[in-house]
Amino acid sequence: MNNKQAEILEFDKNHVWHPYTSMSKPLPSYLVKSAQGVYIYLASGEKVIDGMSSWWSVLHGYNHPELNQALIKQSEKFSHVMFGGLTHEPAVELAKNLIAMTPGGLNKVFLSDSGSVSVEVALKMAIQYWHSKDKPEKHKILTVKNGYHGDTFAAMSVCDPVNGMHQLFETVLMKNLFAPAPKIGFEQVWQADDALALAAMFEQHHHEIAAFIIEPIVQGAGGMRIYHPNYLKTCRALCDQYHVLMIADEIATGLGRTGKLFACEWADISPDIICLGKTLTGGYMTLAATLCTDEIANSISNGEAGCFMHGPTFMGNPLACAVANASLNILKRNEWQQQVANIEAIFKQQLLPLKTHPRVHNVRVLGAIGVVEATENVDMAEIQKRFVELGVWIRPFGKLIYVMPPFVIDIEQLTLLLKAISTVLNEDSCFIQQ
Ligand code: PMP
User: Fold this and answer.
1) How far is CA 425 from CA 324, 343, 374, 393, 417, in A?
2) 292 CA distance to ligand 1 centroid (A)?
3) pTM of the prediction?
4) Residues 299 and 200 placed together within one structural domain of the fold
5) Domain CATH number, residue 119
6) Looking at residue 265, what DSSP letter applies?
């Protein structure tokens, strides 16, 4: 590493916040020089295979010619214009794409900046909907424990109240309702009593509930738990029975990751509101979308305010929309289905056998998501260092070592990625001994 690079890292350490990282005792950050395909090239000389898709976002690999081209072409026309009173082709094309791809009935598209904001938008839509129906008392949100929906205030208020990392803010958060998390795993035998406590909460509180929010099939940052599709089906039925709007947070699961284009498809259901983000631009830049039904959009628009009360500065950013369209066009070629099936097959072959490892509590696989739950917490600095030495980029949290690589990863790269996990499992220094 040269002097300039060392200086960048030093300044970073002293002045730049990183996600969930201490500023007084920061964990090391690795300086990135470039990225190509599934590889991230570090200034220190290593090239690492990205097992995280940069937190569920990069689908088709880094530095993709079609996505680059879409950005360049759009930047030569205009990079941004306000969305109030103006519109443009990239946003309209994106809305068309999303309406066509998402589960039926979601015809109205609200574009925003990030996943958390798209959740804020969804929650505001639900509350404003019931207000417009003359039922302002329906303003609470029901959800399940172990969920994760983002870091902004309303989103925090529906994250798991214990492991959601947000207890500090408890006093100022909206007081929402939490049912037990689904327990029956994706491939286990379904038992209807898994949703009994949830049903009881609907019965008891429906008169005050605006919406029920859930991550379909995979609970991500709240524990990487993969639950049974019948649970999700039951959620839809309860929402219908008790007149509660259903919000599907597909920010992590949407656009192919679970083996279906949307995880809701595993239960053959359509929500009233869906949140999309992360991979919407193929991991190129930040963009999110909240889609809702005609009924919700029309009721809000005919209500007291006459419009939906939200309008971010960078709403419908043309660069982000153009690159999102290019990414969705790649997806529409449908190679993702084979890519995800191939990744899942290798996960099953190479990750599932780790179940018998003495340091492994459980292994879970669905589509292009592979999770190894260890029996001990990882030592973050040490395990990260070892992964880089082994040529991979994996960022575990707590006891969870998980991977969701870009769809374009090949068998050899995937094997190297998974081999790194089995290697570190044998290294005491990578774990915090209890
Ligand atoms: N919902 C889910 C399911 C997520 O996984 C995340 C991001 N981890 C968010 C919401 C928040 O998205 P963002 O980080 O883009 O605000």
Assistant:
1) 38, 21, 8, 16, 13
2) 18
3) 0.97
4) yes
5) 3.40.640.10
6) G
Helix or strand or coil: residue 339?
helix
For residue 410, indicate whether it is catalytic. Answer: no
Closest residue (by CA) to atom 1 of ligand 1? 149
The residue behind tokens 């417009």 is 132
Instruction: State the residue range of the domain holding 313.
Output: 68-332
Residues 291-303 pLDDT 10s: 999 999 999 999 9
Is residue 249 flagged as an active site residue? Answer: yes
Residue 150 Cβ contacting ligand 1 at under 6 Å: yes
The answer on 381 and 254 residing in a single domain is no
DSSP secondary structure, 170-238, as one string: GGGS---EEEPPP-SBTTSPP-GGGGHHHHHHHHHHGGGEEEEEE-SSEE-TTT-EEB-HHHHHHHHHH
Clarify whether residues 73 and 184 are in a common domain: yes
- The residue to mutate among 57, 116, 118, having the most atoms of ligand 1 within 8 angstroms of its beta carbon, is 116
Average pLDDT, the chain: 97
Last residue of a domain, one of 332, 357, 373: 332
